[in-house]
Amino acid sequence: MAIHVPVLLIVILLGASYSVPLLDRYRKNLAFPLTIASLSAVFVFSLYLIFLVGRKGPFFYHLGGWPPPWGIELSVDFLAVYMLMVLSSIGLLVMIYGAKDLRHELKKEVLSWYYTLYLLLIGSMMGIALTNDLFNMFVFIEISAIASCGIISIKEDRRCLEASIKYLILSVLGSGCVLLAVAMIYMVTGNLNFVYIAAELPAALALYPFNILIALSLFIVGLGVKSALFPLHVWLPDAHSSAPSPSSAVLSGLVIKIYAFALIKLLFRVFPPQIYAAVPVLDIILFLSVLAVLVGSIFAMVQDDIKRMLAYSSIAQIGYVFMGIGLFGDRALSGGLLHIFNHAMMKSMLFMAAGLIIYATGIRRIKDLKGIGVRMPWTMGAFTVGALSMVGIPGTSGFISKWYLALGALDLGRPFYVAIILLSSLLNGIYYFPIVIDAFFGTKVEPRSEHRDVPALMLVPVLILAAGVVIFGFFPGPLLNLIEKAMTR
Amino acid sequence: MEIVLKLLNNYYYFVAMVLFVIGFHTMLTHSNLIKKIIGMNIMDTSIFLFFVAIGYVRGGRAPIIQEGAGYQYINPLPSALILTGIVVAVSVTAYALSLISKLYAHYGTVDADEIALIRAREER
Hints:
Order of helices and strands of chain A: HHEEHHHHHHHHHHHHHHHHHH
Distance between the termini of chain A: 25 Å
Number of helices of chain A: 20
Number of helices of chain B: 5
Radius of gyration of chain B: 21 Å
Helix content of chain B: over 70%
Oligomer: heterodimer
CATH architecture of chain B: Orthogonal Bundle
Order of helices and strands of chain B: HHHHH
Largest sheet of chain A: 2 strands, antiparallel
């Protein structure tokens, strides 16, 4: 039993996602408990996997008992369990928040379909984190592409539909690139397993350099489109701002990261390091990430819709993760990986806080948020913690990941990037702090508009995440420990 | 001259790449959403062609093993993978087309530029 836990993570979620609509036909009120139960089970299992890997070391799981090169292999190592922990914890909290919010934002008939799509999305992301097989990764990428478009378009208003078709088209473009890259790799190595490919590639590089270079660039473009690396980000603001709030939280918090994570896995585990000495792919990623952190923040400043501003801020924040990849040093990459978790916490919390404000008052425009802190102190308190962490004030988790990125840049003798990190932090401050200051100190005679009380069930996940941001800001030790082990394999 | 010979020998790869570029270009430049979806399908199909062509062995037979016959067989793995790929492409196409029909109901057009114009007018 214990040995099957890795595959159970995916099986539970996929199984639950298909049984939810069936169950919904007979017992209306069981769909949501089943969703929460399966997400909690997955959360417990991924904690167990961290424990197991910590005690016994990384191991491989062979699907159906077929060893590679024939069968599909799941690799349970520190990197994978770290990502599983991020996915399952944030996934569970967002769904708890969604319990009430979705009822408010969606039509009754489609509610159970939302759970299906959500579970499918989390399950496929777990698959991407675990898989050790290129084609299997492609299949999971496609599942998550459709599911993530689905949780946007399910709202069925005009903005969502337009945003999701834009997202779908670019997303399919990205997965097309990934599939072609898989074909190129298979052509020269005859394998789909990461370990086998990694063993073959150095020899193949001498014989067929063009195939491998094309594959590398296609992977970067394909996964870059999906994770909204700067010039390929055009779909993100519409998609993340028009979606229902739980979808925005999970899309911004998790979905764009998992593709960056897949790229990290490919670049560091599959492609031979000598390829980066020959072609400047890492420098290109670095250049784009610098543009992303600066331009994303500048775009965010001029937005007047709060969710749109948060979406542009995601473009800037994913830039840090790519900066960690591009710097290609151990400490810098630790910073990038740490930022995956920190940003997942911060951004899903900020989106949920914005969702709470919209739920309670219907206000979306930043200008109208004056004095909201008095009416909703808990929500805006959490928002403030998130904003501080985005800027990177010491004592919040955002500081730790930026600190590691900066140290990593200094290790490699590139102080220019430290300056970029500082500059972008200041830019973050420019658009986050006015909201916080206005919310608490701005006095505006509010025409007593519609005001709904915020249910405690919605507030609790936001507060848990806010507490998490502070706790991991003061005690990042366990996380750093895990990431350090992930770096050394 | 050498490169032309190489291309002729591997013309299926070449055709796949040409189709890929056609699909890619259609998908990105046409504003008609239906044409975008057609472009998407051309692109996907070109990748499938490319992938299946990798597994082909000249003079090979379908891989139904006959003991002792001494035939050469083609590599079945790419074909099997591409079956999955086709399923994925079909479902994406179906989803995209249903989205487009919903969009048409809301906006009365399937042209991405016109939809953007209508939205810009609404937001003003």
